[in-house]
Amino acid sequence: MNKKVSSFILLFLGAFVLLNLSGCQSTAPISGKNSLSVGIKNNSLAVTFSADGTLWRLLPAKEFMSVDYSKDKGLTYSQAVRVNPIKQKINTWPENLPSIKVTKAGRIMVMYYADGEQKAMSYFSYSDDNGQSFAPSQLISHHAKTSMNYMTEMVLDKQDNVHFFWHDQRDESIDAELGASVLSLYHAKIEIGSENNIKNTLVSHALCSCCRTAIKFTPTGLPVIFMRMVFANGTRDHVLLTKNKVSGWNSPRRISDDQWNIEACPEHGPALAVDELGRSHLAWFTLGKQRQGIFYAQTDDYGKQVSKPLPLGNLDYLPSHPDVIGLGEDIILTWTEFNGTNTVLYVQKSVNRGETWQPAKPLLSSKSSAGHAKLLTDNKHIFVSWVTKHQGHQMIKVK
């Protein structure tokens, strides 16, 4: 490894540790009138739009998860309602976010983490009365009390069945030869009306334990997974994993060949969007021998052929934690950079499915600790959601 790359890695990891040490102690205020009068734990919350355009939030505090909503795109919020009436030790951080989804019929689904027999155990609950009350929370993993399970992604398919994909420690010994911090990815599907039937199934071994996985669905309704995988030589690069209706999961297709060898936790998961025509839009972070920073690429055949990676941001300012979303032919990217004083949120746009890109523009800035920015859509416009310690939760329309 040359001196420039080594210096960049040391600089990035140093800044990353400082930001996360401050973030782990932070409690950000929640902006908007009539909001719950508590802080947001670790700059982490979840947001989603329902079919009628209502913005829903899942808010973690020290001992409770709460839900509120906004009818005016985040200017004002309702009185929050607790999900868990009994105290739990809530455990969340920007790479281990809770999740909230609303079905077309109006069921509010929530997933969150709390410490018990294991750290950050994944729970889910739901409300069928527009968020006025929630069903008793349930554990998702069958091995939750004996093996760690976290970084759970909750997604809805076209039939409004809920799917969970999570990092699971139960098979850790299988991947021992790959080195440290290697787990398995597991899946559970819950159909409406069968909430107590949670069947756990293995998706893949050799998963990088501390990098959040991205999951979306194809236009035909099959899941697509973008994840950081650990290869036999200890390299941590990204793959696309797709579902085959007949034979289950296909073999993973390698997306990046960055040659990042690190016996540590990058805590830097990728981002994925699949547009209406099936093009996958990919964004990821690496500090490999071949390339360093964050990158965008696309594929029309789920990884058989992938475009040349496009570097994003200014490498001197530690670009990190990208997200990507699509609406029609519009594709939006966002990420943060740290200039030594401020964390700056950038947005970059394409109006032709990622074929060409407009110049990146700074959108927001904060001197305080910050969570990871998330993009979301109400199917008319695109918004970015960002939480910082000093500014609280901000919702900004970007398209």
Compact overview of the structure:
The protein contains one helix and 31 strands. It is mostly beta strands.
Tell me about this structure.
With 399 residues, this protein is mainly β. 6% of the residues lie in helices and 43% in strands. The protein has one helix at residues 3-24; strands spanning 27-28, 40-41, 46-49, 55-60, 65-70, 81-82, 89-90, 99-102, 108-115, 121-127, 138-139, 149-156, 162-168, 182-190, 201-208, 214-217, 223-230, 236-244, 248-249, 253-254, 271-274, 280-287, 292-299, 310-312, 320-327, 330-338, 343-350, 361-366, 374-377, 382-388, 392-397. Strands 7, 8, 9, 10 and 11 form a 5-stranded antiparallel β-sheet that branches. Strands 16, 17, 18, 19 and 20 form a 5-stranded antiparallel β-sheet that branches. A 4-stranded antiparallel β-sheet has the order 3-4-5-6, with no helix packed on it. The longest helix is centred in the first third of the chain and has 22 residues, at 3-24. The N and C termini lie far apart (41 Å).
